[in-house]
């Protein structure tokens, strides 16, 4: 499996009034073309690790895989940049529009692709999870501690999924959607229920990230940054607790605060 997330190269840096040569790290962009039943479904620009998880999570979040028995096989050919997926069913006419579309790592130019299936795949959360404030703070601390590649390059989005206690899985990618899809794929492969889990995200909670959380099916999303107004509206409608500005022992709850409990003294 291709795992070269970082590239090392000699650069010229201006420092202290001089031009000097030095080694630098920066993130690798990798185009992964997803073939479904022999047909091109999409090309995802990603970080080249956990690509089977990415493929599985992406197809599930787009509604191409609705149940685990829809999947027959996944084979990653990282030397050529292909993911070959065989399903036990035909995709049908609903997915004809997706042929030969590129999903950009920055997500901005991919809105047309994502939004066509959002209404059919995004779910109103049925999560019963309850968290105390210290669990919220601990999860944000843990994702920041895990983000070693980001500290070296500043070029990756970080995401994690947790139950607030012992379970914690972390992924990084140049694409913010990709990081979440890798986590979703991880849970699907291992048959880990996601309903009472929490997504922890390094960036702001945009409407697209909120919809991705709804597609995965979690009830809580955390961020050290702020949500957008549309994200808050969607979180209210989809029964998702959105928490932002988790910094210095404090945070803001923007929707469904009933899931955060403070012990009575």
From TrEMBL:
Domain of life (superkingdom): Bacteria
Entry annotated with the keyword Ubl conjugation: no
Catalytic residues of the enzyme: 107 (cysteine persulfide intermediate)
InterPro entries xref list: Cytidine_deaminase-like (IPR016193), FdhD (IPR003786)
Pfam families per the UniProt record, alphabetical: FdhD-NarQ
Compartments in which it is found: Cytoplasm
Gene Ontology MF, one: sulfurtransferase activity
Gene Ontology CC: one annotated term: cytoplasm
Biological process according to GO: Mo-molybdopterin cofactor biosynthetic process
Major subcellular location class: cytoplasm
Sorted UniProt keywords: Cytoplasm, Molybdenum cofactor biosynthesis
PANTHER family, per database record: FORMATE DEHYDROGENASE, SULFUR CARRIER PROTEIN FDHD
Function: Required for formate dehydrogenase (FDH) activity. Acts as a sulfur carrier protein that transfers sulfur from IscS to the molybdenum cofactor prior to its insertion into FDH.
Similarity field: Belongs to the FdhD family.
Protein name listed in UniProt: Sulfur carrier protein FdhD
Organism: Staphylococcus saprophyticus subsp. saprophyticus (strain ATCC 15305 / DSM 20229 / NCIMB 8711 / NCTC 7292 / S-41)
């Amino acid at each position: 499996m291709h795992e070269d997330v970082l590239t090392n190269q000699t650069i010229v840096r201006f420092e202290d009034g001089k031009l000097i040569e030095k080694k630098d790290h920066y993130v690798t962009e990798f185009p992964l073309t997803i073939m479904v039943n022999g047909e091109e479904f999409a090309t995802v620009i990603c970080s080249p690790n956990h690509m089977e998880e990415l493929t599985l999570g992406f197809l599930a979040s787009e509604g191409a895989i609705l149940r685990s028995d829809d999947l027959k096989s996944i084979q990653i050919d990282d030397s050529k940049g292909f993911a070959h997926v065989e399903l036990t069913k035909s995709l049908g006419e609903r997915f004809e529009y997706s042929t030969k579309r590129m999903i950009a790592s920055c997500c901005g130019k991919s809105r047309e692709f994502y939004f066509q299936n959002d209404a059919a795949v995004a779910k109103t959360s049925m999560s019963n999870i309850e968290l105390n404030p210290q669990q919220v703070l601990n999860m944000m601390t843990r994702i920041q501690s895990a983000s070693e590649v980001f500290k070296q390059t500043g070029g990756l989005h970080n995401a994690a999924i947790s139950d607030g206690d012992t379970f914690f899985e972390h992924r990084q990618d140049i694409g913010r959607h990709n990081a979440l899809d890798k986590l979703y794929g991880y849970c699907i492969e291992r048959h880990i229920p996601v309903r009472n889990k929490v997504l922890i995200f390094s960036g702001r909670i945009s409407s697209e990230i909120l919809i991705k959380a709804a597609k995965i099916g979690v009830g809580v999303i955390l961020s050290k940054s702020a949500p957008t107004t549309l994200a808050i509206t969607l979180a209210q409608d989809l029964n998702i607790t959105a928490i932002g500005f988790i910094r210095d022992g404090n945070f803001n709850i923007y929707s469904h605060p009933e899931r955060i409990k403070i012990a009575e003294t």
